[in-house]
Amino acid sequence: MSPPHGNTASADASGKLPAKDPKKKDDKKDEDLSEEDLALKQQLELYVERVQDPSPDLQKVALDSMRHEIRTSTSSMTSVPKPLKFLRPHYGTLKAFYETMPDSDQKKLLADILSVLALTMSAEGERESLKFRLLGSEGDIGSWGHEYVRNLAGEIAQEYDKRRGEEAPIDDLMGLVQQIVAFHMKHNAEPEAVDLLMEVEDLDLLVEHVDKANFKRTCLYLTSSARYLPGPDDVLVLEIAYTIYLKFEEFPNALQIALYLDNMQYVKQNFTSCNDSLKKKQFCYILGRHGLPFEIEDEMLGDGDDRETLQDIVNNTKLSEGYLNLARDIEVMEPKSPEDIYKAHLLDGRASAGASVDSARQNLAATFVNAFVNAGFGQDKLMTISSESSSGSSTGNWLFKNKEHGKISAAASLGMISLWDVDAGLAQLDKYFHSSDNHAIAGALLGVGIVNCGVQSDCDPALALLSDYVGKEDPSIRIGAILGLGIAYAGAQHDLIRQTLTPILNDPKATLDIIAFTSISLGLIYVGSCNEEVAQAIIFALMDRSESELGDPLTRLLPLGLGLLYLGKQVYVAYVDKWFSSCS
């Protein structure tokens, strides 16, 4: 069969077509270029030839011209700059010639250009861009563009890991890191600067490069990154953020980080570094809201600071007063009843039926609704009404409309209604301590804990009242006192209470419910503290349980108390695993 028409002249004796001429292919590519691009391509090729000229002067002119073309070229995120594209075929040639050059300024200039060309030509993992940068001149690294700097940062991170494994020196790398971080910080690329410094484990370098324009963005990225870092890297990152905030006198943000780190030295430093009395009051409100026991020391005070006023704010002594003043200002002091919340009158046929029913479950629900809706206001329509006004009312004595545990909730609700107002709350609860009903006494004990929650006092009224009932025989009274202590001193890490409650966990006469609630109270008092003594006591109490007790739902409160000890401290949870494995 004869070859197709038109191909007979090109076929050789074997019937095969000859290979295409690469020169013709390049010529075709050149034809596709615009006149401007073709002129640039030819100009760059001429520079490549002159770089290889024996004359140093010609070499310098060619290298300077080539560098100028690359630096001034424009590019987008989707295309390679034209000078780099046209110089790509000559990358191998220039590399080979570089190896033959003697040490000179021209050789360093060529190394700079090869470093940029390696951005698109270097093989994976070779890190030739970094190699030639280290061999080149020490000029402005940012003059080659953002993409070059970003690529160089990635190669530095890889090279750093390699050298760290080989225990090789890294001084030359850190010099480049300094330049890159300075460039990023000046061009609103704070996250990239932080990432690079994390890779080379030198975040301290960041402090000297932040300024008033970028420190907030930098700290925001640091604090956000810390959530995803394992310990102790997360602590290191937060400490850098704290240092930066302190440097620019952003004291409230610095205090929040200090509290997150649970670093009391940083908290004190925040006070001593600030000279503004109003800001110090703000710090005290933050500490009070945090529920942290904290003593204002003399060296933390400045001119015009009143130690007693600041300490009262930290102790939340005036919290109830401020809360009630706000309630009066916005006119919400009028007590509300559960019916105001239910709005049952809006439901057809429900209001009349509901009014006649007086079940224990409904009364218990009303107790909780009443306590929460009137929390902190000191008055309500169920528990705090006077006997004269209640004698002719339909509500009667609300406490005795409940049964057993309902009475505990009703009495304890007085603590919620009088929340933070210790004097008034204890006066309201006092009458129930003289009751012959153990459930009313237990509720009053729990109410004492609630009314003292978050409020610190030198006389410790909650401890004085509740500690006398911890050893009582009646389980309800005992649990009420134990839980009251846990709520009143949540987060306080009070050693005297620990010494009072810890023996209960190992008491063979204590019932499971008492042990379970003791675990919860200790967890609340030492929440997030990782206290080893409390953790051991709870673990041993859990290990002493029998098979039948382990199946009881109350037993779940023991590991819950243990979890409270390590709240937000995941890195220390391995300690618990170690204990369980060593004791099993």
Automatic annotation (TrEMBL):
InterPro entries: ARM-like, ARM-type_fold, RPN1_N. Residues 1-11 have a biased composition (Polar residues). The keyword Iron does not apply. One of its GO terms (cellular component) is proteasome storage granule. Residues 1-36 are annotated as: Disordered. Keywords: Proteasome, Repeat. Residues 18-31 have a biased composition (Basic and acidic residues). It comes from the Eukaryota. Gene3D superfamilies: Leucine-rich Repeat Variant. Residues 44-346 form the RPN1 N-terminal domain. SUPFAM superfamilies: ARM repeat. It holds the Pfam family RPN1_RPN2_N. Signal peptide: none annotated. GO terms for biological process: proteasome-mediated ubiquitin-dependent protein catabolic process. PANTHER family: 26S PROTEASOME NON-ATPASE REGULATORY SUBUNIT, 26S PROTEASOME NON-ATPASE REGULATORY SUBUNIT 2. This is RPN1 N-terminal domain-containing protein.
